[in-house]
């Protein structure tokens, strides 16, 4: 990959056009954007991270959206902002760029091909009915299709201290493969109740012990990108995302990088299917 310098952009729409032109005219696939600063001489310029791809003109065209100030300060507000954008697009990058003369944090999204969501085959799990997504029972498993997924934890997560409800920390474990699900029955305080009450996912033991060792009797999740067929199975290590975010799955950074090689806790968002293996036995009849 290499960096392609971009002419000054007045606003997000002009930056979007520049990125589109790179793919439509120069056979470059865009993987991210950024802001380059130099001190001698002092100057600033935007750049795009690109790699040669002669079929880049066939990819979906970009969306570039400035992040609202409130979403810059709070991880839940950020996920609320992203939720409607992830209905039909994946988050390609989140970065600071120069628009006009102002440094602005933006998200760059790429539309995903529309495909038919598999039909639920068994009992529908809606929790208390207030969550914006549902699960269903499929044989011995619980499945969620088209789950809005994000990443969490690690040393660079602006909204996470690295601690998890299972006791297996994400900080100091850069290779930790795991996920977080909003499971029922774990809330211990009014704030936690507001985040988790009424979830469609039943109470299940975590898939790891406090020392991060695997718990075979705990919850394990097979996560699939239906568009590419990529699939990984990880243990549940934490609780969340919160109801009001509209998200249904959080992956550790290492797990997110299985699907997007440049994923971090701050720039990952896509739709994924997941299957809680043998999860049906935890559903109350």
If you had to describe this structure to a student in words, what would you say it looks like?
The chain has 285 residues and is an alpha+beta fold. The chain has 2 domains: 2-111, no CATH class; 124-282, Barwin-like endoglucanases. The chain is built from 5 helices and 14 strands. The chain has helices spanning 12-25, 69-73, 75-85, 190-196, 253-256, and strands at residues 2-5, 28-39, 42-52, 63-66, 89-99, 102-111, 124-125, 135-138, 141-152, 179-181, 220-224, 231-239, 249-252, 269-276. Strand 8 and strand 9 (141-152) form a beta hairpin. The longest helix has 14 residues, at 12-25. The radius of gyration is 20 Å and the shape is globular. The N and C termini lie far apart (53 Å). The model has no long low-confidence stretch (mean pLDDT 93).
**Mean pLDDT over all positions:** 93
* CATH H-level superfamily title of the largest domain: RlpA-like domain
Strand percentage lies at: 25-35%
Number of strands: 14
- CATH topology category name of the largest domain: Barwin-like endoglucanases
> What structural category characterises the helix and strand content?
alpha+beta
Low-confidence stretches are none
| Major sheet summary line | 6 strands, mixed, barrel
Any idea what the shape is? globular
Short description:
The chain is α+β, with helices and mostly antiparallel strands. It is built from five helices and 14 strands.
Keywords:
single chain, 285 residues, alpha+beta, Barwin-like endoglucanases, six-stranded mixed barrel, 5 helices, 14% helix, globular
């Amino acid at each position: 990959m290499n960096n392609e310098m971009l002419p000054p952009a007045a606003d997000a729409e002009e930056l979007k056009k520049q990125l589109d032109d790179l793919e439509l005219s120069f056979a470059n696939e865009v993987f991210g954007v950024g802001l380059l600063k130099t001190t001698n001489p002092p100057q600033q310029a935007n750049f795009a991270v690109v790699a040669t791809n002669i079929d880049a003109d066939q990819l979906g065209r970009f969306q570039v959206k400035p992040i609202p100030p409130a979403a810059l300060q709070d991880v839940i507000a950020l996920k609320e902002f992203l939720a409607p954008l992830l209905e039909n697009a994946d988050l390609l990058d989140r970065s600071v760029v120069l628009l006009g003369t102002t440094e602005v944090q933006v998200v760059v999204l790429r539309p995903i091909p529309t495909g038919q969501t598999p039909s639920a085959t068994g009992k529908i799990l809606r929790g208390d009915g207030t969550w914006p997504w549902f699960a269903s029972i499929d044989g011995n498993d619980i499945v969620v299709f088209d789950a809005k997924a994000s990443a969490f934890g690690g040393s660079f997560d602006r909204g996470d201290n690295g601690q998890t409800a299972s006791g297996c920390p994400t900080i100091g474990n850069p290779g930790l493969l795991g996920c977080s699900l909003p499971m029922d029955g774990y809330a211990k305080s009014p704030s936690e109740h507001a985040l988790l009450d009424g979830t469609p996912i039943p109470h299940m033991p975590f898939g790891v012990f406090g020392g991060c060792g695997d718990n075979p009797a705990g919850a394990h999740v097979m996560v699939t990108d239906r568009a590419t067929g990529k699939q990984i199975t990880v243990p549940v290590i934490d609780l969340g995302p919160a109801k009001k975010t509209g998200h249904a799955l959080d992956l550790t950074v290492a797990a997110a990088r299985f699907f997007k090689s440049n994923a971090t806790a701050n720039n990952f968002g896509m739709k994924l299917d997941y299957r809680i293996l043998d999860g049906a036995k935890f559903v109350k009849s």
